[in-house]
């Protein structure tokens, strides 16, 4: 039953992609929108495939992915311990809550001039902005996950003489892990957006965003701009798919899977 549902979702998703492709192709071919603004979808797709053989373009994509991976990794390294601390020690949570709520709404792109001034115009700026934007989903999912851990399991360990650290490592962290994974998946998308957007807005360095920005300045660069956007969307789709697969493999005890198992066994 579950495999049938996934197969249906796959086919419906493919149908949606084909419909969107058909609409864009028809609009471009019919001349409803000037080709300088919207190239036919088939031409954009062909150009996107051609870029796969362009070494300079792939080097730029690699630079974007390196900044993405480093920024996301730093965000996880910061957010998980901090989230565990805030979720475990109410006094600390109350002390820093105002600061966290003040910083969270600040848009990362608005910090580009300041961060560029402090760190220069290199990869460090991209990584800093990506890290800043990616911290929040992981941090709040970690805090929320701690609040959802089984209190009976924690009380049982305490009754047997286990200390605070043992309870954290044996119960709270495993119970919070699926929430952390979900936060990482959300942050992965945000990190990719920031990596490309920072390159677009800053105009320095190398990367997919630089390619799109330079193509936008060309006389007839619409097709390259859209091809670059297709690459960005494809990267995001692949990253999200890999992380979702990893969640299903690593955390089969999540609520959705428990409900499915319960229906199968009749419990």
Automatic annotation (TrEMBL):
Where is this chain primarily localised? membrane
In this chain the ABC transmembrane type-1 domain maps to 61-243
Transmembrane portions of the chain:
67-90, 190-213, 225-245
SUPFAM superfamilies attached to this UniProt entry: MetI-like
Subcellular localization is given as:
Cell membrane
Tell me how this protein sits in the membrane.
Answer: Multi-pass membrane protein
One Pfam match, given by its short name, reads BPD_transp_1
Keywords attached to this entry: Cell membrane, Membrane, Transmembrane, Transmembrane helix, Transport
The cross-references to PROSITE patterns, in alphabetical order and at most eight, read: ABC_TM1 (PS50928)
Family listed: Belongs to the binding-protein-dependent transport system permease family.
* Protein name as catalogued: ABC transporter permease
């Amino acid at each position: 039953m579950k495999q049938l549902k996934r197969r249906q979702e796959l086919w419906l998703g493919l149908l949606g992609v084909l419909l969107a492709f058909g609409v864009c192709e028809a609009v471009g071919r019919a001349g409803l929108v000037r080709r300088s603004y919207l190239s036919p979808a088939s031409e954009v797709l062909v150009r996107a495939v051609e870029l796969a053989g362009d070494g300079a373009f792939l080097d730029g994509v690699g630079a974007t992915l390196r900044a993405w991976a480093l920024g996301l990794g730093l965000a996880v390294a910061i957010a998980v311990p901090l989230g565990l601390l805030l979720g475990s020690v109410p006094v600390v949570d109350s002390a820093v809550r105002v600061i966290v709520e003040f910083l969270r709404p600040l848009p990362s792109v608005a910090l580009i001039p300041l961060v560029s001034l402090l760190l220069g115009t290199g990869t460090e700026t991209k990584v800093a902005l990506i890290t800043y934007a990616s911290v929040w989903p992981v941090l709040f999912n970690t805090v929320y996950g701690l609040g959802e851990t089984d209190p009976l399991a924690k009380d049982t360990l305490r009754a047997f003489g286990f200390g605070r650290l043992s309870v954290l490592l044996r119960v709270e962290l495993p119970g919070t892990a699926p929430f952390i994974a979900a936060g990482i998946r959300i942050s992965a998308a945000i990190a990719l957006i920031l990596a490309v957007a920072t390159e677009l807005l800053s105009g320095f360095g190398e990367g997919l965003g630089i390619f799109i920005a330079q193509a936008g300045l060309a006389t007839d660069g619409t097709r390259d701009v859209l091809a670059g956007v297709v690459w960005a969307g494809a990267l995001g789709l692949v990253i999200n798919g890999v992380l979702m697969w990893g969640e299903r493999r690593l955390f089969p005890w999540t609520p959705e899977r428990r409900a499915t198992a319960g229906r199968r066994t009749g419990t």
